[in-house]
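Course exercise 7: structure representation. Students receive a sequence record and must write out the corresponding structure in token form. The form below is the worked example handed out in class, using DEAD-box ATP-dependent RNA helicase RhpA (363 residues). Read each field label carefully; the graders check that inputs and outputs are placed in the correct fields and that the protein name is recorded exactly as given.

STUDENT ID: A-19
EXERCISE PROTEIN: DEAD-box ATP-dependent RNA helicase RhpA
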Amino acid sequence: MSFDSLGLNPDILRAIAEQGYREPTPIQQQAIPAVLEGRDLMASAQTGTGKTAGFTLPLLQHLITHQPHAKGRRPVRALILTPTRELAAQIGENVRDYSKYLNIRSLVVFGGVSINPQMMKLRGGVDVLVATPGRLLDLEHQNAVKLDQIEILVLDEADRMLDMGFIHDIRRVLAKLPSKRQNLLFSATFSDDIKALAEKLLHNPLEIEVARRNTASEQVTQHVHFVDKKRKRELLSQMIGQGNWQQVLVFTRTKHGANHLAEQLNKDGIRSAAIHGNKSQGARTVRWPILNPAISACWWRRILRRVAWILKNCRTWSTMNCRTCRKIMYTVLAVPVARRQPARRCRWSVLTNISCCVISKSC
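STUDENT ANSWER:
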């Protein structure tokens, strides 16, 4: 089966081809036709099975097929709820990639960042809104968004949302939606709590279960290494070096442990960054492109242009006031620079999704 046989718009197929996909995954083969038929869906699949495209592609197809005739500001017609900021950003990027040749506007909103820019973008009209429950309710409370014209609701990683205690926020969101809508629920497993939520949310849903219940993906190879606590970091560095691993995600027990491990790996010559709850959203955004292959090429080109500009124009970059420049010099060149408080805003804007900060007066 190919994507051409699924009844998708040629502009969507063009965007899919540019992403390098040729054949739909099993969950996409089952989910896309069902969503296009207008059915409610309850799907279970492990991460990495292509479930995001399983609801994004037919969602976009529905929006361009059923364009509203009324003129004026675009209402939010599709709502995608996710448990975390990072997942929301990832889904938002997928929506932008697949809708690049369509007259579709999308927006990602989550907490931890200023709400005002999000409110300004909503005023311009949005077709697809990707949101975390808390920030969505904040925006609705301030009358920045109306949810009375939602046609498709997607709950992604619903099991995680329940585990994180979002059930009350979800119920508040559902109460503000129109009763006539299509509901898509995606979860890693069909737990009893998920089934209870589905009974209240879904109407005669099609159930899809790609992976076996409560099992890890077969593509994951698991190993256990017994090692003394003091030599864990040494073993990890050796494994990364010998295996020539290009991307590694390490979970630690504590936030301090994450910071310490990142420092030690950097000393070993392995570029590392720690991400945890004590980091601001801005700090997470700075570090995330290092780990994200989808945007790393463009991001690093802009980073290197910024480094070249710093070396050429800033005569005292070793003691610069620019917080962003300090991070760049330390991250890219591993150059230690003095830490000083920022002085003023800089109009230089090269980095995507990173607020340009300050440059010392000597630059």
